[in-house]
Specification:
The protein contains 1 helix and no strands. By secondary structure, it is mainly α. Helix content is 73%, strand content 0%. The radius of gyration is 16 Å and the shape is rod-shaped. This is Glycosyl transferase. Keywords: Membrane, Transferase, Transmembrane, Transmembrane helix. GO terms for molecular function: transferase activity.
């Protein structure tokens, strides 16, 4: 998906989305790690 040049906040929103996904995934990974031990 090509981003329009008139949106300077695209990298910021992208990083926010990535951090949001990490915040959701990290607790799941911790639970899986606890169960595997």
């Amino acid at each position: 998906m090509p981003t329009p040049p008139s949106s300077p906040h695209a990298p910021v929103t992208l990083s926010i989305v990535i951090h949001g996904q990490l915040a959701l995934v990290l607790p799941l990974l911790e639970q899986l790690d606890r169960h595997s031990r």
